[in-house]
Amino acid sequence: MLDVDLIRRNPEMIRVMLLNRNYTEETLDEFLRLDEEWRRLIDESNRLKHQRNIASEQIPKLKGDEKKKVIGEMKAVAERIKHIDTTVADLETKRDEVVLNIPNIPDDSVPIGCDYDGNCIVSSSGSIREFNFTPKKHYEIGEDLDIIDFQRGAKITGSGFYILKGDGARLERALIQYMLDVHHEQGYTEIFTPAIVNTASVMGTGQYPKMKDDMYWCERDDLWLNPTAEVPVTNMHKDEIFEREQLPISYTAYLPSFRREAGRSADTRGIIRVHQFNKVELVKFVHPSTSYQDLETLRSDAEAILQGLELPYRTMLLCTGDMGFASAKTYDLEAHAPGASQWLEVSSCSCFTDFQARRARVKFRPEPHLKSEFVHTLNGSGLALPRTMVAVLENYQNKDGTITIPAVLRPYMKGQEIIS
RNA sequence: GCCGAGGUGGCCUAGCCCGGUAAGGCGCAAGCCUGGAAAGCUUGUGUCCGCAAGGACUCGUGAGUUCAAAUCUCACCCUCGGCGCCA
Fold first, then answer.
1. I want to staple A419 with a disulfide (CB 3.0 to 4.6 A). Which of A41, A306, A340, A403 is the partner?
2. Which nucleotide is nearest to A86 (CA to C1')?
3. Where in chain A is the domain with CATH 1.10.287.40?
4. pLDDT of residue A295
């Protein structure tokens, strides 16, 4: 959520930002209108309450008719206050709803563009693997080796769910453990959180209300299946105030993520876009003065996994039109999958500035006596499992249909070198 | 799920029965004092409206009663203890 004061003072800057991000200006105008009316009424309400407070001090001292007279007057004032406050609350709800739908302001270093094509390649690493045979696609490999079962996944739950079996399941577990161990070495504290969260949490990180149709919701308990570990991990510190020396805080968490992918056509066969997937996440709470440096560190910490796995990848700086709602700057890491000859987004690393912190009220005290300020939050995948699995399977496939297990994963698979 | 106790400012605690608009302590900071420090004293310490003066709000959340609610009523949430159920 943006600072409402910032919107009031710089409406034209916000207008330009909305257009750069492919959002309409309507929300801004709606905000300005509601806010002005809200401020007018809150002021009137405050004046009446002041009047009432003065009378309340007097009443116990008064007697007889005079007392009755003042009480009578206050009765009318009380009714007026009640009436105005109802309108104020109503305006406030509407206004907050509008503000919650205004995206974060991109950093100056973010290129302006309207979609994927506007993104910039920042760097690339490794070279695309070439084969002396026709490489298979990951779902062909998965079925041929009997390590991924789509049919039975659909049977027990529905389409978009899959089962990992045998060495497939073991490879997944090895990847998770490898990632967590690397991040542990990089100084992240490992966290394991609930996978189901309340509305305040999805509001805190910005998925609610904008993305609510993309999340699974448990109606009876009004709880949500987390769409990313970013939600529980960031909201851990909701309504908290850190001391300056506690920052930065770095967490890594392994957790399944759930996405309804509402309205998307199932154009991707296999496990590239599924409803439930594992992900190792990186989350940081940092001082505002260092957040963009911290984004570079976060990104390289995520890249270390791809380097360790020796997968070719490239790093993209997203443009204004392609960035997520809450982000001020985002890098995507794309691993190359030679089977389908495509770049797969395996990680998205973002700096959210104070956007999430303001929603979730995560603050720090710059100096012991000074007023608390919002921290900056960052997060990135380190990495998303299914797509990493796709990249591993397609890059490490052999002519005979077997898979060579990446060297860094072998210790997690009892030294096994081949999946056959 | 049931019974009991509780939720008060950055932290700890009083007030609640009996309604009059949050007392005290700790921490932290500034000022006074001092050669310097400690102690002591004074002030400050959250959110919102306002250029400011000033004002409003804040006692887990929401509603209700009342001129007036931390205090009374109702519903809900969370924490702790006991019982029940359970991998």
1. A403
2. B63
3. 4-100
4. 96
The answer to whether A414 CB sits below 7 Å from nucleic acid chain B is: no
| Distance in Å, residue A308 CA to nucleotide B47 C1' | 49
Integer Cα distance of A151 and A162 in angstroms: 8
What is the spatial distance, in angstroms and rounded to an integer, between the CA atom of A394 and the C1' atom of B12?
60
Tens digit of each residue's pLDDT (9 = 90 or more) over A185-202: 999 999 998 888 888 888
Residues 6+ apart with CB under 8 A from A359: A1, A100, A203, A204, A205, A206
Which nucleotides of chain B are near protein (any atom < 7 Å from a CB)?
Answer: 10, 20-21, 28-30, 44-50, 54-57, 63, 66-68
Integer distance in angstroms from CA A52 to C1' B68?
Answer: 9
Alpha carbon distance A224, A239 (integer Å): 20
Q: With a cut of 60, say whether residue A266 has pLDDT above it.
A: no
User: For the whole model, what pTM was predicted?
Assistant: 0.88
Q: What's the pLDDT score for residue A198? A: 86
Tell me the fold of A116-419. BirA Bifunctional Protein; domain 2 (3.30.930)
Cβ of A47 near strand B (distance < 7 A): yes
Strand, helix or coil for residue A222? coil
Whether the beta carbon of A413 falls within 7 A of nucleic chain B: the reply is no
pLDDT tens for each residue of A318-343: 999 999 999 999 999 999 999 989 99
Q: What percent of chain A has pLDDT over 90?
A: 59
Distance A369 CA to B31 C1' (A): 15
Q: Is A12 left (phi over 0), alpha (psi -120 to 50) or beta?
A: alpha
Token pair belonging to A146: 């009997």
Q: Which architecture, in CATH terms, is A4-100?
A: Orthogonal Bundle (1.10)
Mean pLDDT value of segment A238-256:
87
Distance CA(A182)–CA(A299), nearest Å, equals 14
ipTM, 2 dp: 0.83
